[in-house]
Sequence to fold (434 residues):
Amino acid sequence: MEQTKTIAQAARGLHGTVAIPGDKSISHRSVMFSALGSTPVHITNFLHAQDCLSTAACMQALGAAVTFESDTELTVCGHGLHGLQEPSSIIDAGNSGTTLRLMMGILAPQPFLTTFTGDASLHKRPMGRVIKPLTQMGAKIYGRVQNTKLPITVVPAGRRLSGMVYESPVASAQVKSAILLAGMYADAPTTVVEPFTSRDHTERMLEAFGVYTEKEGTAVTIRPVGSFTAPEAIEVPGDISSAAYWLVAGAIVPGSSLLLKNVGVNPTRTGILDVLRAMGAHIALQNERVSGGEAAADIRVEASVLHGTSFGAEIMPRLIDEIPVIAVAALFAEGDTVITGAGELRVKETDRLQAIADEFNKLAPGSVEAGADSLVIHGGTKVQHASCFSYDDHRMAMSLAILGTAGAGVALERPECVNISYPAFYRTLQDLQQ
Ligand code: S3P
Fold:
């Protein structure tokens, strides 16, 4: 792909139907958990994108049979909960925080050594948030910079892990999931308490494997697992974090009308629907259904006049990955939008608060102020054409492309990172403008 991608302003609105690609979080978990079973699991609508392919390669390196029947369909078969094998070389998690953090939880109780590496972005991201609680359970995990950064080596604990109650300082499904997965192998129940409830895909998918967690408020408890029975099939719903770009584009580009097919609408993920509706967006859910323990629906969005809004820490886990594109919606709304409690954005694939401020202010000078954990977006600021940088962050690239589409176009430097979660993004953007 070219080093700079030119995105034109949409002349006549966006129209059409989009089949939303598989959910990234659920795709990761489908391969990981299937690799811990001992019978084949047929996975459909798998997200064929770099992050989830990193997980598939990781599970293969640990001895699971992973066979792709097509880009989005695969069969995974492991050797049981205690059947993972020592990898013959270093495992590369690429750009994927989910792969690395959940795998630390799965590998901490195993009787062999694994070393992880990843790309430049993943080397900068905080891993102490997972290593610290796993170490409290008795795991032996070593990383650069006082056990907080890649490269990371997980060595045999030499004993069974201890169950514990962990009060997590962050609402993070990656932290929660790593601890719960390690807790399956522990000697007593393990509880994770979060400040706010994060996405619950791990808990829901474990049920399909016969493992039930108990939930009380923001606490989740798992008991030591005796039997782990894989389902025959897992169907992955579409990713609301990918649908988010079309939800916003459909709402802000005048004259647009889009139908988004098969969007996962798990309530721990639908913060963007609440925020866009509060801003005045015309969004309607159709054909609501439940598949494999996860809610899904088709979503119709039509262009409307949006107004600014405010939201904070409480809703943050339900829309954490959508902040960059919600900021785009806010830029095209009337009045200011104030986002607080968003400090976690500073430790995503890039520092997204800084990236949003720097790039939005190139396209709409004076539009964004970033604080330590906040953003103020001045809606209605005049938007111009400019060159912008993706920071090799997929969600920044897609958000800036939508900003350019709704505004005056954008020349996007390093656009290819969309392959992390949405390889068909630019093609779909073009198709919707025909
Ligand atoms: C994810 C959890 C979130 C999210 C990430 C995927 C997951 O991260 O931002 O894209 O699949 O568990 P945190 O758990 O760090 O908030």
Q: What stands out?
A: The chain is about 30% helix and 25% strand. The chain has two domains: 5-21+237-432, 24-219. Residues 6 and 411 are 5 Å apart (CA to CA).
